[in-house]
Specification:
The chain is an alpha/beta fold. It is built from eleven helices and 30 strands. Helix 3 crosses helix 7 (about 210-225).
Length: about 475
């Protein structure tokens, strides 16, 4: 297989708002296991994982997700070539440009296989064969996009009108239903997959022609950035000056070097809950269920239960998504409108669109259990060998009760061990650290008390994850 020139580039900057409440800003859909076959980003990385001819994937992702991406790659044995960190999402054109600049600055000029992290491809072997078959086109200097053979007149995708051979006639915005039906019947239109195969230097050449401002700001952001082990932090101030633009708008719709290759591999961008229902495999009643679900006289529905039993009676074409802190009920035909709920939550300055009740950290996670005026209760899990930062709080004191495992506690000048059923008290204003020196997860119950209990009341003095803030 001639794939040694391929450099997978995985873009993991999306928030997946239409898959709320499972997908949230700090834990978006690419990090979710929606089909029971690994998370979407794991599936994306695995498409060429194990092929010795192909380099490890280069990621471009949000700062907030860096440890989650690394952990999920470790779980499948995939080693990232680099994880580049955007301080804020600026769409796919700047992300692809950062990757191309990183590679060319290193003296490399590979064919980049640019893939969103949150798509489903059922037929991995056919996908690999299609990409390899498109390599000669990319090596000739064409910017190759992959157009999905449409299976229905979808109004949720953009379309590509193709001419003879691999020629692109035009890119078309998401159409209305009547127009989409006409597109599919013509046989000349493909869904725009958002997957690209292009040489790094050719991308930069075309970007310099059609969007030189994006190139300029990305070059500055990369030059002023800093490396931190397997991460590269793009300079925030320089990157904020870069406009948000897609690969299609920035270059593909303007260049005369665009080519399209048909893709028939069971593709879905899982852009809405209705898409998951379509690809997840329905039972004899047309239902897809996940978790503790009891259905009666219900058809063609998707019901997901994360936290408790969900029972549904007499429903048809309905989506029900239950999480510990939110419940979504929506007609399947209105699945695209879930984004409107997220927009409302954002406008109301609520946080259910940002985080789950369980919040992941590089050392493990914490989960809210209870809370009220001047107190809150959390459950913490610290992974074996992991440690929280050396920190202090201006406004709260903490009580820790060890439920499972062994804790090494730093409290002021003291360092001591605690085991199951033992506890300690951390007074307000005292430096402290929690570590797990054992071989099993450490679980504790933390009771916080004080006039202000926000997560921003943390002063870090030392942190193994480079999160120090004074």
């Amino acid at each position: 297989m001639d794939a040694k020139d391929i450099q997978p580039v995985i873009l993991s900057g999306g928030a997946g708002t239409r898959l709320w409440p499972l997908s949230r800003e700090h834990y978006p859909k690419q990090l979710l296991n929606l089909l029971g076959e690994g998370t979407l980003v794991q599936q994306t990385a695995a498409r060429f994982n194990g092929n010795n001819d192909v380099a490890g994937p280069l990621f471009v992702c949000n700062e907030e997700h860096r440890f989650l991406i690394r952990e999920q790659m470790e779980q499948i044995g995939a080693r990232a070539a680099m994880i580049m960190l955007e301080p804020i999402g600026r769409n796919t054109a700047p992300a692809a440009t950062l990757a191309a600049l990183w590679l060319t600055n290193a003296g490399l000029d590979p064919i980049m296989l640019v893939m969103p992290a949150d798509h489903i491809i059922k037929d991995r072997a056919s996908f690999e064969a299609t990409v390899v078959g498109a390599l000669p086109i990319a090596k000739e200097g064409w910017l190759v996009t992959f157009g999905v053979m449409p299976t229905a007149p979808s109004t949720g995708y953009g379309y590509i009108r193709r001419g003879g051979g691999n020629a692109v006639v035009e890119f078309v915005e998401k159409p209305d239903r009547e127009t989409a039906e006409r597109y599919v019947q013509s046989g000349s239109y493909l869904w725009n997959s958002g997957i690209f195969l292009l040489r790094a230097s050719v991308w930069l050449e075309e970007l310099r022609r059609f969007a030189p401002d994006i190139l300029q700001h990305c070059e500055a952001a990369l030059a002023k950035g800093k490396r931190d082990g397997g991460f590269y932090h793009v300079d925030r101030d320089a990157f904020l000056k870069c406009r948000s633009e897609s690969i299609d708008y920035a270059v593909m719709e303007k260049t005369n070097r665009a080519a399209v290759v048909p893709l028939d591999v069971g593709w879905s961008d899982v852009g809405a809950w209705s898409n998951l229902w379509e690809v997840a495999g329905q039972d004899e009643n047309g239902n897809v269920v996940r978790g503790d679900v009891c259905l009666y006289d219900t058809q063609d529905s998707l019901v997901v239960a994360q936290h408790r039993l969900v029972a549904a009676i007499g429903l048809k074409n309905v989506i029900v998504i239950e999480t510990p802190d939110a419940l979504l009920v929506v007609d399947k035909s209105r699945a695209q409108d879930v984004k409107q709920v997220v927009d409302k939550l954002r406008a109301q300055k609520r946080d259910e669109h940002v985080t789950h009740r369980r919040v992941h950290r590089p050392w493990g996670y914490y989960e809210g259990i209870d809370g009220g005026e001047r107190f809150q209760v959390k459950r913490l899990m610290v992974k074996p060998g992991a440690a929280l930062s050396l920190q202090m709080h201006h406004h709260r004191a903490e009580h820790w009760v060890i439920v499972k495992g062994t804790a090494r506690v730093t409290r002021g000048e003291e360092v001591f061990l605690l085991t199951e059923n033992q506890s300690t008290y951390i007074p307000l204003g005292v430096k402290h650290r929690l570590e797990n020196p054992g071989n099993i997860p450490l679980e504790i119950i933390e009771v916080q008390s004080g006039p202000y209990l926000g997560e921003d009341d943390i002063v870090r003095f030392d942190d193994v994850y480079s999160r120090v803030k004074h």
